[in-house]
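--- STAGE predict ---
source: upstream dedup step, 1 unique chain passed
mode: sequence only
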Amino acid sequence: MATTSSFSKGCFVFKAKPESSGKSPRKKTKKSSNLLHRSNGDLNASSLFGKCDKSSMEIRQDSYKKIWMSTKKKSEDIISDSHKQLLHDVSQFVSENADIGQSSIPTALVALGVNLPDHAAFFSLLDSTLNAHVSPFVAMLNSKECPSLKNMVLKAIQKLTSCDLADDDAEKDEEADEIVPVKPSSKIKTFANLATWYSNVVIKTPLIIILQDLESFSTQQLQDFVLLCREYRVRNKLPIQFIMGIATTVTLQQQLHHRTSVCLATKSFQSRPSIVLLNHLIEQLFMNSSVLKLGPRLMQLLLDGFLYHDLSLSSFLMRVHLIIMQHYITLPVSSLCCSMSELIDRIKKLSAADLDLYRQVPSFMKFIENNRSKVSLLTDDKEFRSFLQKSFEDLNSYSKDFSLSCRILHCLSDGMPDALFGKSLREVYINFLIGAESEDWDRFIQLLNISTSYELQSRIQAALTTLKESDVSSALSDFSTSLVLFSEELKRLEQAPDTDTATSPKSPNVFVPKGKKLDKFELKAQLLASAKQARPTSKFDEIKSEIVSWLNSHLARQLKSPTTILFHEVFYAGSQVQSSWDIVPWIRRQVQPVPRVAISKALSDPASYLGCNCCSSNGQGSQILSTMPDLCIVYKLHTECGRLINLYDWMLSFNAIQQKDKDDENEEIEPIIQARFIRAVAQLQLLGFIQSSKRKTDHVARLTWGV
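--- STAGE serialize ---
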């Protein structure tokens, strides 16, 4: 029987399919589950690409697979590298506490943050690391599979004894009389049996029990389990150790009472914040030589989902996967969204119809409107192919320069007041991808003008370090050269401070005649007069003014958003504004669903979900058919009522709809109709559309309006 999740309890019908003889239902279920697992990957993508234009379907599907596999590999490497130090520290803690001399249980408290969906990936890496380097006896438990203390003990013993360890030295020395460890048996159900089993193990390694979600275990159950483990650690010398995963330390004192905590020798470990990993992911996936990038709207959508929803990197990558797939499915011009090495061959294979699609790109149409001399590109296919190749190469080089310019600006603005463009490189990149405000740029120039020699020198050195670590293109090579010259000039100025002379006289002080007091009006007049006089400018002020004016002209030119460049729609997903190619509304509906609206739509128009003709209202949304599900009929009737609904009148209307196709004029309501109505009303109450009323016992109150 297939599993079904629902908002409400109800009956679900599954039509039996004829089974071939000789096959058991269990094998068939396993096969279907494997098929379901495959459908989440390339199988589902292939079926979606099958609906696309056949001329470019294979090319776009091949590009999608390459881009996603590259993105997936990079993200896995980044997440694995981020956990490397934490895995090493936890493994070292377990190895150092392998001695069973102490009565307290060595316990590693690993704080992983509130991004709960990412915890499973870390514990999977931890399990494999401990098995490879510390001990093969590892039991990983979570609260779902341990509803009681009995289940918790059985699961822990089962997983600890499921490792069939073989001693390599014992295999080499055949004459040794050492006992081979016994295999897990159903007889091992208590810690006493576990102690007997462990006494026959060849290599005495620690017994590690990992509790993935400590907060989800009941307090009493956790306390009893810890006391039980400590008892057998002291009495039977079982080297039991704990690794407990916690989201925050707030509930730690609530879960571990004093009676429990005194039995544990704890040490805390902290993982890197997920926001730091997100910054690193965006830098590596969308800033460093990536083929497909995200437009400003999709980037902001992903960040809103991450920062204000779950802080989960796995959910973030799932949304990125959805965007990549939808970009190649929806946009017919995405066939050229590939690496530069494949671009030339693909442009040559474009047909005349494909070239017309690229002529319909909004950025190209705007380019033609502003450059009437290029009208020949609309008719000459050969010239247009050359123009396509040059435009894509220019867009690719500009995207690289834009990312590098964002890094340079981050070095120059780091530590400035108010964090004008953001505190991290990710924020700087997204601000200029969207289009930074001119007020922030003017403020940045003003802060550079008042910076000291040491501050300016340190910022320029940081920018030069970034340029040395990056692959500088020809467009930024002159920028780098000029920056080096400015840095050398500042160094020479610091080495010879005595040669700094003022180019204008000092401003005079306020003159006060002897024996006379100035009133506030005279003082104000003298201060205004002295302020109008030119201030003395030093050599450093001249150099600083030259540097700032040069940055204002050259750096600002490289920070223009790539979404203003020709054919950016091909390489920047979500930057397409044409209604038929815009994927942002569809992505927003998938990653930010509105359950109430979806439920109301399903109940108002069940045919759109069920796909049947019997429930179709033929464009008349207010029509109620007897063939509709009972819940839909009750829902549509309740939308016609006011704040309070009389249950008896409601049931009469429901019965009238059910009996309108029958010739029977009997006014008595059948018991089956009453039962169906009561069940539908209970389901509607469970969905949150109605509630019982305290004013009238035979009425219910309506809770939703205007959906």
